[in-house]
Design goal:
14 strands; single chain; about 425 residues; alpha/beta; five-stranded antiparallel sheet; Alpha-Beta Plaits; nine-stranded mixed sheet; 2 domains; Aminopeptidase
Protein backbone atom coordinates (compact mmCIF):
# COMPACT_ATOMS: atom_id res chain seq x y z
CA UNK A 1 0.00 0.00 0.00
CA UNK A 2 1.22 3.50 -0.84
CA UNK A 3 2.44 5.79 1.94
CA UNK A 4 -0.42 7.67 3.61
CA UNK A 5 -0.24 11.46 3.29
CA UNK A 6 0.26 13.50 6.45
CA UNK A 7 -3.01 14.56 8.04
CA UNK A 8 -2.06 18.25 8.04
CA UNK A 9 -2.15 18.48 4.23
CA UNK A 10 -5.24 20.44 3.15
CA UNK A 11 -6.53 22.24 0.09
CA UNK A 12 -7.08 26.01 -0.03
CA UNK A 13 -10.81 26.20 0.66
CA UNK A 14 -11.05 29.91 -0.02
CA UNK A 15 -9.40 29.56 -3.43
CA UNK A 16 -11.70 26.66 -4.35
CA UNK A 17 -14.75 28.70 -3.35
CA UNK A 18 -13.57 31.73 -5.33
CA UNK A 19 -13.11 29.51 -8.39
CA UNK A 20 -16.63 28.11 -8.02
CA UNK A 21 -18.07 31.62 -7.79
CA UNK A 22 -16.04 32.84 -10.77
CA UNK A 23 -17.24 29.94 -12.92
CA UNK A 24 -20.83 30.66 -11.81
CA UNK A 25 -20.62 34.07 -13.50
CA UNK A 26 -20.68 32.27 -16.86
CA UNK A 27 -24.23 31.45 -17.92
CA UNK A 28 -26.05 32.89 -14.92
CA UNK A 29 -29.61 31.73 -14.33
CA UNK A 30 -32.54 33.91 -13.37
CA UNK A 31 -32.81 32.67 -9.76
CA UNK A 32 -29.17 32.55 -8.67
CA UNK A 33 -28.08 29.37 -10.40
CA UNK A 34 -26.69 28.62 -13.85
CA UNK A 35 -27.80 27.89 -17.40
CA UNK A 36 -24.70 26.61 -19.16
CA UNK A 37 -26.05 24.02 -21.57
CA UNK A 38 -23.72 21.64 -23.34
CA UNK A 39 -21.81 23.08 -26.32
CA UNK A 40 -23.46 26.49 -26.17
CA UNK A 41 -21.40 29.67 -26.20
CA UNK A 42 -21.66 29.67 -22.40
CA UNK A 43 -20.24 26.15 -22.22
CA UNK A 44 -17.37 27.23 -24.47
CA UNK A 45 -16.67 30.18 -22.18
CA UNK A 46 -16.61 27.88 -19.14
CA UNK A 47 -14.28 25.48 -20.97
CA UNK A 48 -11.96 28.31 -21.99
CA UNK A 49 -11.78 29.58 -18.40
CA UNK A 50 -11.06 26.08 -17.11
CA UNK A 51 -8.33 25.62 -19.73
CA UNK A 52 -6.69 28.93 -18.75
CA UNK A 53 -6.68 27.98 -15.07
CA UNK A 54 -5.20 24.55 -15.81
CA UNK A 55 -2.45 25.97 -17.99
CA UNK A 56 -1.66 28.55 -15.31
CA UNK A 57 -1.24 25.60 -12.91
CA UNK A 58 1.36 24.09 -15.24
CA UNK A 59 -0.88 21.47 -16.83
CA UNK A 60 -0.90 20.39 -20.47
CA UNK A 61 -4.51 20.39 -21.69
CA UNK A 62 -5.60 17.97 -24.40
CA UNK A 63 -9.05 17.35 -25.89
CA UNK A 64 -10.38 14.11 -27.36
CA UNK A 65 -12.79 13.69 -30.25
CA UNK A 66 -15.80 13.87 -27.91
CA UNK A 67 -14.65 17.19 -26.48
CA UNK A 68 -13.58 15.69 -23.16
CA UNK A 69 -10.82 17.89 -21.70
CA UNK A 70 -7.85 16.39 -19.84
CA UNK A 71 -5.43 18.60 -17.86
CA UNK A 72 -2.22 16.67 -17.26
CA UNK A 73 0.12 17.25 -14.29
CA UNK A 74 3.28 15.17 -14.92
CA UNK A 75 4.34 12.41 -12.61
CA UNK A 76 7.91 11.38 -11.96
CA UNK A 77 7.28 8.36 -14.20
CA UNK A 78 5.40 9.49 -17.30
CA UNK A 79 5.17 5.92 -18.56
CA UNK A 80 2.57 5.21 -15.85
CA UNK A 81 -1.18 5.78 -16.32
CA UNK A 82 -2.62 8.86 -14.59
CA UNK A 83 -4.86 9.11 -11.58
CA UNK A 84 -7.74 11.10 -13.04
CA UNK A 85 -10.23 13.32 -11.22
CA UNK A 86 -13.12 15.39 -12.47
CA UNK A 87 -16.77 15.69 -13.44
CA UNK A 88 -18.61 18.13 -15.75
CA UNK A 89 -19.11 21.86 -16.32
CA UNK A 90 -22.43 21.74 -18.23
CA UNK A 91 -25.64 22.41 -16.29
CA UNK A 92 -29.37 21.86 -16.44
CA UNK A 93 -31.48 24.68 -17.95
CA UNK A 94 -32.26 25.74 -14.39
CA UNK A 95 -29.18 24.27 -12.73
CA UNK A 96 -27.18 25.07 -9.64
CA UNK A 97 -23.64 26.33 -9.26
CA UNK A 98 -22.17 23.12 -7.84
CA UNK A 99 -23.59 20.03 -9.62
CA UNK A 100 -20.60 18.69 -11.57
CA UNK A 101 -18.64 21.92 -11.28
CA UNK A 102 -17.45 21.05 -7.77
CA UNK A 103 -15.84 17.87 -9.11
CA UNK A 104 -13.98 19.64 -11.92
CA UNK A 105 -12.78 22.61 -9.88
CA UNK A 106 -12.13 20.41 -6.84
CA UNK A 107 -9.82 18.42 -9.10
CA UNK A 108 -8.11 21.62 -10.22
CA UNK A 109 -7.69 22.63 -6.57
CA UNK A 110 -5.96 19.29 -5.89
CA UNK A 111 -3.43 20.12 -8.63
CA UNK A 112 -2.96 23.65 -7.32
CA UNK A 113 -2.40 22.32 -3.80
CA UNK A 114 0.14 19.75 -4.95
CA UNK A 115 1.95 22.61 -6.67
CA UNK A 116 1.79 24.84 -3.59
CA UNK A 117 3.21 22.11 -1.37
CA UNK A 118 5.85 21.01 -3.87
CA UNK A 119 4.49 17.46 -3.77
CA UNK A 120 5.55 15.11 -6.54
CA UNK A 121 3.63 11.96 -7.40
CA UNK A 122 4.91 8.90 -9.18
CA UNK A 123 1.82 8.68 -11.36
CA UNK A 124 0.63 11.70 -13.34
CA UNK A 125 -2.51 13.41 -12.07
CA UNK A 126 -5.16 14.57 -14.52
CA UNK A 127 -8.33 16.65 -14.23
CA UNK A 128 -11.12 15.90 -16.70
CA UNK A 129 -14.19 17.82 -17.83
CA UNK A 130 -16.61 15.36 -19.46
CA UNK A 131 -18.85 16.61 -22.29
CA UNK A 132 -22.67 16.52 -21.97
CA UNK A 133 -23.06 14.83 -18.62
CA UNK A 134 -26.47 16.36 -18.00
CA UNK A 135 -28.08 15.30 -21.27
CA UNK A 136 -30.48 18.22 -21.04
CA UNK A 137 -29.64 19.45 -24.55
CA UNK A 138 -28.48 16.20 -26.15
CA UNK A 139 -30.07 13.07 -24.64
CA UNK A 140 -29.00 10.63 -23.25
CA UNK A 141 -27.01 11.89 -20.30
CA UNK A 142 -23.34 11.03 -19.70
CA UNK A 143 -22.89 10.41 -23.40
CA UNK A 144 -19.19 11.32 -23.67
CA UNK A 145 -18.03 9.26 -20.71
CA UNK A 146 -20.25 6.54 -22.19
CA UNK A 147 -18.40 6.73 -25.52
CA UNK A 148 -15.08 6.81 -23.62
CA UNK A 149 -16.09 3.56 -21.88
CA UNK A 150 -17.44 1.88 -25.01
CA UNK A 151 -21.13 2.02 -24.06
CA UNK A 152 -21.97 4.12 -27.15
CA UNK A 153 -20.31 4.72 -30.50
CA UNK A 154 -18.94 8.12 -31.42
CA UNK A 155 -21.08 8.19 -34.57
CA UNK A 156 -24.20 7.68 -32.47
CA UNK A 157 -23.17 10.49 -30.14
CA UNK A 158 -22.31 12.88 -32.97
CA UNK A 159 -25.77 12.34 -34.47
CA UNK A 160 -27.72 13.31 -31.35
CA UNK A 161 -29.87 16.38 -32.03
CA UNK A 162 -31.29 19.08 -29.78
CA UNK A 163 -34.78 20.60 -29.98
CA UNK A 164 -33.67 22.86 -32.85
CA UNK A 165 -32.17 19.99 -34.84
CA UNK A 166 -28.55 20.96 -34.15
CA UNK A 167 -26.31 17.93 -33.67
CA UNK A 168 -23.79 17.25 -30.94
CA UNK A 169 -21.06 16.67 -33.50
CA UNK A 170 -21.88 19.89 -35.31
CA UNK A 171 -21.90 21.93 -32.12
CA UNK A 172 -18.61 20.41 -30.97
CA UNK A 173 -17.11 21.60 -34.23
CA UNK A 174 -18.77 25.03 -34.01
CA UNK A 175 -17.25 25.85 -30.62
CA UNK A 176 -13.88 24.36 -31.55
CA UNK A 177 -13.81 21.41 -29.18
CA UNK A 178 -13.35 18.37 -31.40
CA UNK A 179 -9.88 17.33 -30.33
CA UNK A 180 -7.29 15.17 -32.05
CA UNK A 181 -7.06 12.40 -29.45
CA UNK A 182 -9.24 9.36 -30.25
CA UNK A 183 -11.81 9.00 -27.51
CA UNK A 184 -11.21 6.12 -25.12
CA UNK A 185 -7.55 5.49 -25.92
CA UNK A 186 -6.39 7.10 -22.66
CA UNK A 187 -5.70 4.52 -19.95
CA UNK A 188 -6.32 5.43 -16.30
CA UNK A 189 -4.86 4.01 -13.12
CA UNK A 190 -7.94 5.19 -11.23
CA UNK A 191 -10.74 7.75 -11.44
CA UNK A 192 -12.21 9.83 -8.58
CA UNK A 193 -15.25 12.07 -8.80
CA UNK A 194 -16.23 14.58 -6.12
CA UNK A 195 -19.90 15.55 -6.28
CA UNK A 196 -22.67 17.04 -4.20
CA UNK A 197 -24.94 14.31 -2.87
CA UNK A 198 -28.10 15.60 -4.61
CA UNK A 199 -30.03 14.08 -1.74
CA UNK A 200 -30.78 14.87 1.94
CA UNK A 201 -29.01 12.08 3.83
CA UNK A 202 -25.60 13.61 4.63
CA UNK A 203 -27.00 16.93 5.81
CA UNK A 204 -29.70 15.24 7.91
CA UNK A 205 -27.13 12.99 9.60
CA UNK A 206 -24.58 15.82 9.95
CA UNK A 207 -21.99 13.91 7.94
CA UNK A 208 -19.21 15.74 6.15
CA UNK A 209 -18.44 13.04 3.62
CA UNK A 210 -20.31 10.32 1.77
CA UNK A 211 -18.10 7.37 0.81
CA UNK A 212 -19.90 6.19 -2.32
CA UNK A 213 -19.84 2.41 -2.62
CA UNK A 214 -22.31 1.87 -5.47
CA UNK A 215 -24.26 3.62 -8.19
CA UNK A 216 -27.96 2.78 -8.41
CA UNK A 217 -29.16 0.48 -11.13
CA UNK A 218 -32.11 1.80 -13.10
CA UNK A 219 -34.98 0.28 -15.04
CA UNK A 220 -37.38 2.58 -16.93
CA UNK A 221 -40.72 1.48 -18.36
CA UNK A 222 -43.31 2.96 -20.69
CA UNK A 223 -46.73 1.65 -19.67
CA UNK A 224 -49.95 2.10 -21.69
CA UNK A 225 -53.32 1.07 -20.23
CA UNK A 226 -56.27 0.63 -22.58
CA UNK A 227 -59.83 0.71 -21.31
CA UNK A 228 -62.99 1.94 -23.03
CA UNK A 229 -64.10 5.52 -23.61
CA UNK A 230 -67.71 6.21 -22.70
CA UNK A 231 -69.98 8.91 -21.35
CA UNK A 232 -69.10 10.13 -17.86
CA UNK A 233 -72.72 10.78 -16.95
CA UNK A 234 -74.56 7.76 -18.30
CA UNK A 235 -72.11 4.88 -17.77
CA UNK A 236 -72.76 3.14 -14.42
CA UNK A 237 -69.71 2.70 -12.23
CA UNK A 238 -69.72 -1.13 -12.28
CA UNK A 239 -69.73 -1.14 -16.12
CA UNK A 240 -66.72 1.14 -16.58
CA UNK A 241 -63.29 0.18 -17.93
CA UNK A 242 -61.46 3.28 -16.76
CA UNK A 243 -57.83 3.38 -17.91
CA UNK A 244 -57.03 6.26 -15.58
CA UNK A 245 -58.19 4.31 -12.54
CA UNK A 246 -55.92 1.47 -13.67
CA UNK A 247 -52.98 3.84 -14.04
CA UNK A 248 -53.70 5.42 -10.65
CA UNK A 249 -53.61 2.04 -8.98
CA UNK A 250 -50.24 1.39 -10.58
CA UNK A 251 -48.94 4.70 -9.20
CA UNK A 252 -49.78 3.52 -5.69
CA UNK A 253 -48.33 0.07 -6.41
CA UNK A 254 -45.02 1.60 -7.57
CA UNK A 255 -44.78 3.45 -4.26
CA UNK A 256 -45.49 0.31 -2.24
CA UNK A 257 -43.00 -1.75 -4.24
CA UNK A 258 -40.24 0.78 -3.52
CA UNK A 259 -41.14 1.01 0.17
CA UNK A 260 -41.01 -2.78 0.42
CA UNK A 261 -37.34 -2.66 -0.60
CA UNK A 262 -36.21 0.18 1.65
CA UNK A 263 -33.89 1.90 2.28
CA UNK A 264 -32.20 1.95 -1.14
CA UNK A 265 -35.12 1.36 -3.51
CA UNK A 266 -36.97 4.23 -5.16
CA UNK A 267 -39.91 4.14 -7.56
CA UNK A 268 -41.33 7.06 -9.51
CA UNK A 269 -44.14 7.76 -11.96
CA UNK A 270 -43.03 10.99 -13.60
CA UNK A 271 -45.42 11.17 -16.58
CA UNK A 272 -49.11 10.31 -16.95
CA UNK A 273 -51.15 11.25 -20.05
CA UNK A 274 -54.86 10.33 -20.24
CA UNK A 275 -56.77 10.19 -23.55
CA UNK A 276 -58.98 11.82 -24.72
CA UNK A 277 -58.55 14.16 -21.73
CA UNK A 278 -62.14 15.40 -21.82
CA UNK A 279 -64.07 16.37 -18.71
CA UNK A 280 -67.06 14.20 -19.50
CA UNK A 281 -65.41 11.18 -21.13
CA UNK A 282 -64.15 8.19 -19.16
CA UNK A 283 -60.48 7.85 -20.17
CA UNK A 284 -59.95 5.04 -22.65
CA UNK A 285 -56.17 5.19 -22.75
CA UNK A 286 -53.41 6.30 -20.40
CA UNK A 287 -49.68 6.34 -21.11
CA UNK A 288 -47.31 6.63 -18.17
CA UNK A 289 -43.71 6.09 -17.11
CA UNK A 290 -42.26 4.01 -14.28
CA UNK A 291 -38.71 4.45 -12.94
CA UNK A 292 -37.27 1.86 -10.52
CA UNK A 293 -33.79 2.19 -8.97
CA UNK A 294 -31.77 -0.02 -6.62
CA UNK A 295 -28.06 -0.91 -6.20
CA UNK A 296 -28.78 -4.67 -6.37
CA UNK A 297 -29.72 -6.11 -9.77
CA UNK A 298 -31.63 -9.00 -8.20
CA UNK A 299 -33.83 -6.56 -6.29
CA UNK A 300 -34.47 -4.58 -9.47
CA UNK A 301 -35.65 -7.79 -11.13
CA UNK A 302 -37.90 -8.56 -8.14
CA UNK A 303 -39.41 -5.06 -8.32
CA UNK A 304 -40.15 -5.59 -12.00
CA UNK A 305 -41.81 -8.95 -11.31
CA UNK A 306 -44.01 -7.48 -8.59
CA UNK A 307 -45.03 -4.60 -10.89
CA UNK A 308 -46.07 -7.12 -13.56
CA UNK A 309 -48.14 -9.04 -10.99
CA UNK A 310 -49.83 -5.82 -9.82
CA UNK A 311 -50.64 -4.87 -13.41
CA UNK A 312 -52.19 -8.28 -14.06
CA UNK A 313 -54.40 -7.91 -10.98
CA UNK A 314 -55.44 -4.40 -12.03
CA UNK A 315 -56.44 -5.59 -15.50
CA UNK A 316 -58.43 -8.51 -14.08
CA UNK A 317 -60.34 -6.19 -11.76
CA UNK A 318 -61.03 -3.33 -14.19
CA UNK A 319 -61.25 -5.12 -17.54
CA UNK A 320 -58.38 -3.10 -18.99
CA UNK A 321 -55.38 -4.24 -21.02
CA UNK A 322 -51.82 -3.02 -20.96
CA UNK A 323 -48.63 -2.72 -22.96
CA UNK A 324 -45.34 -2.54 -20.99
CA UNK A 325 -41.99 -1.75 -22.61
CA UNK A 326 -38.67 -1.54 -20.80
CA UNK A 327 -37.06 1.48 -22.47
CA UNK A 328 -33.87 1.82 -20.42
CA UNK A 329 -31.76 -0.50 -18.31
CA UNK A 330 -28.68 0.71 -16.48
CA UNK A 331 -27.06 -1.97 -14.33
CA UNK A 332 -25.94 -1.23 -10.77
CA UNK A 333 -22.34 -0.10 -10.45
CA UNK A 334 -20.21 -1.42 -7.57
CA UNK A 335 -17.27 0.95 -7.27
CA UNK A 336 -13.74 -0.40 -6.91
CA UNK A 337 -13.07 -1.55 -3.35
CA UNK A 338 -9.47 -0.29 -3.27
CA UNK A 339 -10.51 3.16 -4.49
CA UNK A 340 -13.40 3.29 -2.04
CA UNK A 341 -11.02 2.34 0.77
CA UNK A 342 -8.69 5.25 -0.10
CA UNK A 343 -11.65 7.62 0.25
CA UNK A 344 -12.68 6.11 3.57
CA UNK A 345 -9.12 6.22 4.93
CA UNK A 346 -8.78 9.84 3.82
CA UNK A 347 -11.95 10.88 5.66
CA UNK A 348 -10.80 9.06 8.80
CA UNK A 349 -7.28 10.52 8.60
CA UNK A 350 -8.64 14.04 8.30
CA UNK A 351 -11.19 13.60 11.09
CA UNK A 352 -14.27 14.12 8.95
CA UNK A 353 -17.51 12.45 9.93
CA UNK A 354 -18.43 10.08 7.13
CA UNK A 355 -20.74 7.25 6.13
CA UNK A 356 -21.07 4.80 3.26
CA UNK A 357 -23.71 5.87 0.75
CA UNK A 358 -25.22 4.77 -2.56
CA UNK A 359 -25.57 7.24 -5.43
CA UNK A 360 -29.18 7.59 -6.52
CA UNK A 361 -28.23 9.62 -9.59
CA UNK A 362 -26.19 8.66 -12.62
CA UNK A 363 -22.69 10.12 -12.95
CA UNK A 364 -19.78 9.93 -15.38
CA UNK A 365 -18.06 7.75 -12.78
CA UNK A 366 -20.62 5.03 -13.45
CA UNK A 367 -19.43 4.65 -17.05
CA UNK A 368 -15.74 5.19 -16.27
CA UNK A 369 -16.02 2.33 -13.76
CA UNK A 370 -16.34 -0.02 -16.76
CA UNK A 371 -12.77 0.72 -17.87
CA UNK A 372 -10.90 1.88 -14.74
CA UNK A 373 -10.98 1.47 -10.94
CA UNK A 374 -13.35 4.20 -9.79
CA UNK A 375 -14.97 5.74 -6.74
CA UNK A 376 -16.89 8.85 -5.76
CA UNK A 377 -16.93 11.30 -2.85
CA UNK A 378 -20.13 13.07 -1.83
CA UNK A 379 -20.48 16.26 0.18
CA UNK A 380 -23.83 17.46 1.57
CA UNK A 381 -26.12 19.92 -0.19
CA UNK A 382 -28.76 22.06 1.49
CA UNK A 383 -32.07 20.17 1.87
CA UNK A 384 -30.86 17.66 -0.70
CA UNK A 385 -31.88 20.02 -3.51
CA UNK A 386 -30.22 19.77 -6.92
CA UNK A 387 -31.18 20.36 -10.58
CA UNK A 388 -32.63 23.60 -9.27
CA UNK A 389 -31.20 27.11 -9.21
CA UNK A 390 -31.48 27.27 -5.41
CA UNK A 391 -29.08 24.31 -5.07
CA UNK A 392 -26.57 25.26 -2.37
CA UNK A 393 -23.63 24.00 -0.34
CA UNK A 394 -21.34 25.58 2.24
CA UNK A 395 -17.69 26.44 1.75
CA UNK A 396 -16.88 24.08 4.62
CA UNK A 397 -18.59 21.17 2.86
CA UNK A 398 -16.78 21.90 -0.40
CA UNK A 399 -13.47 22.14 1.45
CA UNK A 400 -14.00 18.83 3.26
CA UNK A 401 -14.82 17.05 0.03
CA UNK A 402 -11.76 18.43 -1.74
CA UNK A 403 -9.54 17.61 1.26
CA UNK A 404 -10.62 13.98 1.06
CA UNK A 405 -10.15 14.03 -2.71
CA UNK A 406 -6.61 15.38 -2.25
CA UNK A 407 -5.66 12.61 0.18
CA UNK A 408 -7.23 9.82 -1.87
CA UNK A 409 -5.44 11.02 -5.00
CA UNK A 410 -2.09 11.41 -3.23
CA UNK A 411 -2.32 7.88 -1.89
CA UNK A 412 -3.31 6.40 -5.25
CA UNK A 413 -0.82 8.45 -7.28
CA UNK A 414 1.97 7.57 -4.81
CA UNK A 415 3.80 10.49 -3.22
CA UNK A 416 7.50 10.58 -4.02
CA UNK A 417 9.56 11.19 -0.87
Amino acid sequence: MATAPADNLRINGGRLWDSLMEMAKIGPGVKGGNKRLTLTDEDKAGRDLFRSWCEAAGCRVSVDTMGNMFAHRPGTDESLPPVTIGSHLDTQPTGGKFDGVLGVLGGLEVVRTLNDLGIRTRHPVEVVNWTNEEGSRFAPAMISSGVFAGAYTQDYAYGLADAEGLTLGGELKRIGFIGDEPVGQRKLKAYYELHIEQGPILEAEECDIGVVTHGQGQRWYDVSFTGFESHAGSTPMPRRHDALVAASRLVLAVREIALAHAPHAVGTVGVMKPYPASRNVIPGEVSMTVDFRHPDDAVLAEMKARMEAEIAAINDDLGTSVDVEEVFYYPPVPFDRACVDTVRRAAERLGYRHRDIVSGAGHDACYVARVAPTSMIFCPCVDGISHNEIEDISQAWATAGADVLLHAVMEMAEIVE
